[in-house]
Amino acid sequence: MTLQFFVRSPTHQTLTVTLEPTQSLTLRHLKSSLFPNLRSVSSFYFALNGKPLSDSTLLPNSQITRLSTLFLLPRISGGGGDGGATGAESRDCYLKMYADKKPDKIDPNEKRLGKWLNCALSYEPLREPCVIDKLGNIFNKEALVEALLGKKLPKEFRHIRGLKDMINIKLSMIPGKESEAADGATFQCPITGLEFNGKYKFLALRNCGHVVSAKALKEVKSSTCLVCHKEFVESDKMVINGSEEEVAALRERMEEEKVKAVKEKKKRGIDVVDGKKDCGKLEGNEKLENGKKSNNGGAKKFRAVDVAPANATKEVYASIFTSSKKSDFKETYSYYPTQFQMPKDHVA
Questions:
Q1: What is the full DSSP assignment across 321-338?
Q2: What pLDDT band is residue 114 in, cutting at 50, 70 and 90?
Q3: What angle do CA 72, 35, 7 make, to 5 degrees?
């Protein structure tokens, strides 16, 4: 899986590093590639959660997890020979100070950017086509479909069981911005131009899939999509990457839709069964209405004598139908001579 983490430079700049599963390098090489203008690479070192890391540490590493932050810090040079503190003593004090320090929390801004710029499943940069689930999480469609086919969805996405649980969305790219750009937002609101970076609230319209900012829908009062002018209702609005309260409301709506769908399926199933029963109902004497056959295994086979007129003899009425009684008539063959002969006593 792709490893993505952040590096905080000595000048307080934050850089995003993404390593593919096939890539591997040491922290020394990482320093050289990220900061080629450093005067002395060896005079700086990486620290994670207040603990220094060796330059020979190989990436990927189990200590460096996804979305963690590495700090590039200068090494403290110590004195010596003058009765003062030595370099070793200075470093021990420095390490002890960081060892007692609580682990640094993830920068909220970095976490927000990672949530809005990357796929919620693969953590890769968003690229079209994109989809959202019914809780507002955003995915690269290709990654989500592959996870569904391979049955590798994490537990937090177990509510996604197929394509019916996805909503196709249409994102508007910032003009001049290339897809999968590493720096900043790639998409924006097509109406207000606000960037899709988590600073502003965005909604997707389920009926057409267009993604617009909440500010655009608030300023332009309309019951049609501001992009394609397709009619929508209030329930078509889906909050993307909403707050805990908004996600809870979406989850409640999702459960209500599931219950409603189950009830409709059950209702349709009962109607079909009733329709079959209405096609042939048995009367008290086990006859069928309109002469239609019943699916009931105990029903009698249709016989002509059962529907004979009141004043008719059943045997006579049944004889009309060849299937009611076999005839005793046997076909015979007569001999016809080829030449007609006159009787002997015939007088011409």
A1: STTTS------------S
A2: confident
A3: 40
The predicted structure's pLDDT at residue 284: 43
Sequence letter at residue 179: S
Rounded Cα gap, residues 255 and 135, in angstroms: 11
Q: What gap in Å lies between CA 254 and CA 248, rounded to an integer?
A: 10
CA angle 81, 87, 91 (to 5 degrees): 155
DSSP, res 99: H
Radius of gyration over alpha carbons of the chain, in Å?
42
What is the DSSP track for 286-309? S-BGGGPPPS-TTPPPP-GGGG--
Query: Please, are residues 309 and 316 in contact by the beta-carbon 8 Å criterion?
Result: no
Residue 6 identity (one-letter amino acid): F
Query: If we measure between CA atoms, which residue out of 178, 240, 174 comes closest to residue 209?
Result: 240
* Closest C-alpha among 298, 303, 273 to residue 286: 298
Q: How far is CA 130 from CA 126, 172, 209, in A?
A: 7, 11, 10
Residue 288 main-chain phi, psi, to 5 deg: -110, 140
**CA-CA-CA-CA torsion sign (190, 196, 199, 204):** positive
Q: What is the pTM of this model?
A: 0.48
